[in-house]
């Protein structure tokens, strides 16, 4: 439960020193903490806006926690913050950002700000962002030849194109919403370059 009107950030991290650092960096938010997946799920409710989730946790893994979050249909954004290098298994994970430890202060703060902004978008656009984040993470990790040889990666690319078409259709229904159209075009332009969406530019387009 939230005790204020501030955005709620749930930090799921089993190393107290690391969690303390995140807490200091995010003082403008209401920060909740959990050291295990079970503790995180016990705290999770509709007041949580962003989850910073470690993959390596005692007992229930971060991937299992993420699966449970999505199965509950809780409307929060999730960033994996982990020392585990991404592999092709992340294609099936429903995260919104993937950060490799250790993040610096600005990277963590900018990630939280981006995810809070994404929470204001419609479901199709949020899903599009999530798929693109997974592709961008893999693009930054593996050589092109290895990506093209992976069937799951090729399916991911196809899913992104399907969602692009759906978002494009939505633009037609929202022709009077110039901010929305500008934001979507910014995402599409960026993904044409096979990079993750630049949310700093996204934010500028929606001011």
UniProtKB/TrEMBL annotation:
GO molecular function terms attached to this record: phosphorelay response regulator activity; transcription cis-regulatory region binding
Example GO BP: regulation of DNA-templated transcription
Keyword DNA-binding attached: yes
InterPro entries: CheY-like_superfamily (IPR011006), HalX_domain (IPR013971), Sig_transdc_resp-reg_receiver (IPR001789), WalR-like (IPR039420)
Keywords for the protein's UniProt record, in alphabetical order: DNA-binding, Phosphoprotein, Plasmid, Transcription, Transcription regulation, Two-component regulatory system
The keyword DNA-binding appears for this protein: yes
SUPFAM superfamilies tied to this protein: CheY-like
Protein name: Response regulator transcription factor
Modified residues (4-aspartylphosphate): 54
Domain Response regulatory residue range list: 8-116
Organism: Halorarum halophilum
Pfam family for this entry, one: HalX
Domain of life where this protein originates: Archaea
Annotated GO CC locations: cytosol; protein-DNA complex
């Amino acid at each position: 439960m939230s005790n204020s009107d501030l955005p709620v950030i749930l930090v799921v991290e089993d190393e107290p020193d690391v969690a303390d650092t995140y807490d200091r960096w995010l003082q403008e938010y209401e920060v909740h903490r959990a050291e295990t997946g079970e503790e995180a799920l016990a705290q999770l409710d509709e007041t949580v806006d962003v989850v910073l989730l470690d993959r390596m946790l005692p007992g229930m893994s971060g991937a299992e926690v993420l699966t449970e979050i999505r199965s509950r249909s809780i409307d929060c954004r999730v960033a994996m913050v982990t020392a585990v290098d991404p592999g092709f298994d992340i294609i099936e994970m429903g995260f919104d950002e993937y950060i490799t430890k250790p993040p610096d202060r600005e990277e963590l703060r900018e990630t939280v700000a981006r995810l809070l902004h994404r929470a204001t978008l419609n479901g199709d656009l949020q899903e599009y962002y999530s798929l693109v984040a997974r592709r961008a993470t893999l693009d930054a990790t593996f050589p092109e030849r290895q990506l093209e040889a992976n069937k799951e990666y090729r399916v991911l690319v196809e899913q992104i194109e399907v969602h692009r078409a759906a978002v494009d259709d939505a633009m037609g229904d929202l022709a009077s919403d110039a901010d929305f159209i500008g934001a979507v075009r910014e995402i599409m332009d960026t993904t044409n370059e096979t990079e993750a969406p630049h949310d700093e530019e996204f934010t500028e387009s929606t001011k």
